[in-house]
Design goal:
Layout lengths: L1 H22 L4 E4 L2 H9 L3 E7 L4 H13 L9 E6 L4 H6 L7 E6 L2 E7 L4 H9 L3
Parallel strand pairs: 1-3, 2-3
Antiparallel strand pairs: 2-4, 4-5
């Protein structure tokens, strides 16, 4: 009897793991590297470059909005690259960003839009949709 219970528990855990991984098909978030960014562009993926700072109150307001939005199936292919405003100055400059709380969307190699200091969920959603 203990074997059957153990097998049942393992099967339940596996099915829960599969269900969780299937619902986790939302956007992919990764630290920015030029190679990863270029690969996503080459693949024609929708991309969000999130230039933020840990001390930034606007960034702190943006992140939960973005996290909630990307749970939608509409953003399942979105790749999010985090750029640290303080430690990745060369990258910040390469994107022409002047400050933290900058959101830039691309579809493949083409920039489709950007915003700075935006904390309105509807306009952030509209920006992310431009990447699709």
């Amino acid at each position: 009897m203990p074997r059957i219970k153990l097998l049942s528990t393992i099967m339940l855990a596996m099915s829960l793991s599969i269900a969780i991984s299937q619902t986790a098909l939302a956007a992919t978030e990764a630290p920015y590297t030029q190679q990863a960014f270029a690969a996503s562009q080459h693949e024609g993926k929708p991309i969000l470059v999130d230039i933020s700072a840990s001390w930034c109150p606007i960034c702190a307001k943006q992140h939960p909005i973005i996290n909630q939005l990307v749970e939608s199936p509409a953003f399942g292919d979105l790749v999010i690259y985090k750029v640290d405003f303080d430690t990745q100055k060369d990258v910040v400059r390469s994107f022409g960003a002047q400050m933290q709380s900058t959101l830039i969307v691309f579809h493949g190699p083409k920039e489709k839009g950007r915003s700075v200091g935006d904390t309105d969920p509807d306009s952030i959603k509209a920006l992310l949709l431009k990447a699709n």
